[in-house]
């Protein structure tokens, strides 16, 4: 742990080693894989009212319970399996969130049919390339933006649940649609470089 703390990082990730690893390897990296987008949508919708640290600790439980985030499988979950999931301590046992994940899987595939991929759809809300912010303190970080407002509104119109603007902005941060690493974080320039490479 001491070695991990030697580099400058966004202070929100310093709670436990898995959080630092997530920050250093995933958070802010541009995502174009639909299955990864679906994973984060499930995890972020489950987070509503809870901390991301809580969800991150249950990530493997979600991976197991939700068919390794295979949206085609999740879309077909029967009510009997919903009842099983309500007994599973590896996930957040909230019936509305569980049912929302199934509904969202169905809506996710409808978006794929319309746009060719969910990635094509969601990147359209930021003009196809990551928004590069220049945050110097956590106090400058926003909870929502006009882009997340528009995206959340459109998702709601399409039938998605538990994905309001705050949750969607967290998704945008996590999947690299926006770079919200602090400028003095060692990942800021690394993620910025990844964004440039993905748009070549």
Q: Uncertain runs with pLDDT below 50, 5 residues or more?
A: none
Q: What is the CATH architecture descriptor? A: Orthogonal Bundle
Q: Radius of gyration, rounded?
A: 17 Å
Give the distance, in angstroms, between the N- and C-terminal Cα atoms. Answer: 36 Å
What number of domains? 1
DSSP helical segment count: 11
CATH superfamily: Hypothetical protein, domain 2
Report on the biggest sheet.
2 strands, parallel
Output the CATH class name.
Mainly Alpha
Overall mean pLDDT: 94
CATH topology: Endonuclease III, domain 1
What's the short story on this structure?
This protein is mostly helical and 200 residues long.
What does this structure look like?
With 200 residues, the chain is mainly alpha-helical. It has a single domain (10-198), classed as Hypothetical protein, domain 2 (Endonuclease III, domain 1, Orthogonal Bundle). 55% of the residues lie in helices and 2% in strands. It has a two-stranded parallel ribbon. The longest helix has 21 residues, at 95-115. The model has no long low-confidence stretch (mean pLDDT 94). It comes from Algoriphagus boritolerans DSM 17298 = JCM 18970. GO terms for molecular function: DNA-3-methyladenine glycosylase activity; metal ion binding. Zn(2+) binds at residues 10, 23, 181, 185. Keywords: Metal-binding, Zinc.
How would you describe this structure in keywords?
200 residues; Endonuclease III, domain 1; two-stranded parallel sheet
Structural topology:
Layout: H1 17-25, H2 34-47, H3 52-57, H4 59-65, H5 71-74, H6 79-85, H7 95-115, H8 118-123, E1 131-132, H9 146-157, H10 165-174, E2 178-179, H11 186-198
Parallel strand pairs: 1-2
